[in-house]
Amino acid sequence: MKIDNEKVVTLTYDMYVGAEGEQEELMEQATAARPIVYCHGVGMMLPKFEQALAGKQAGDTFDFRIACADAYGEHDEQGVMTLDKKMFYNGDGEFDEERVYVGNIIPMNTVDGQVVNAEVVEVTAETVTIDLNHPLAGEDLHFKGEVVDVRDVTPEELEAIRHPHHCGGGCHKGKCKKEKGCCCNS
């Protein structure tokens, strides 16, 4: 069976970052013990990733690159912000040093209530600098691996992918919550 839309694909790979012709750094591995499994064509993976794998089948190997512009974009300096340290106080009115330290990823709320991940890049006596860019922004990606399996997606899997917060799923434990923003109310 070939990789096509709505096929469940199991892969092993090594993902490297760095420009072609330069020393690359191994950034991620999907191993036989912990492969990546995704449903092709439903937006779970980068579009260029899916394009590179379309038509392959179990046993095929691959070796392709995705330029940063087609992956997570260039690093945007506007995504780096310095904020007042008081924004990171805990419920006791003290700075939350257990969560907010250089290198840690913390959830932040946007003005419209969305949750985004931010990397803490600096902590001073008065401020915390965060980076809202994706950790791989500005990086070219290089994938080398093998297609382990390709199979049809089941109707139940497809429903769970398309409606991850459906009332029948785990988020409401079978009970519809009539709350603002609940997918059941849209």
The largest sheet, given as strand count, sense and whether it forms a barrel, is: 5 strands, antiparallel
Fill in the CATH topology of the largest domain: Chitinase A, domain 3
Question: What's the tally of helices?
Answer: 2
Q: Do you know the CATH architecture of the largest domain?
A: Roll
Stretches where pLDDT falls below 50 for ≥5 residues? 167-186
Tally of extended strands? Answer: 9
**Radius of gyration over alpha carbons?**
20 Å
H and E string: EEEHEEEEEEH
Quaternary structure classification: single chain
Estimate what percentage of residues fall within beta strands: 25-35%
Shape: globular
Can you put this structure into words, describing what you see?
This protein has 2 domains: 83 residues, Chitinase A, domain 3; 55 residues, Thrombin, subunit H, CATH 2.40.10. It is built from 2 helices and 9 strands; from the N terminus they run E-E-E-H-E-E-E-E-E-E-H. Strands 1, 2, 3, 4 and 9 form a 5-stranded antiparallel sheet that branches.
What's the quick description here?
The chain has 2 domains: 7-72 and 137-153, Roll (Chitinase A, domain 3); 77-131, Thrombin, subunit H (Beta Barrel). The chain has 2 helices and 9 strands, in the order βββαββββββα.
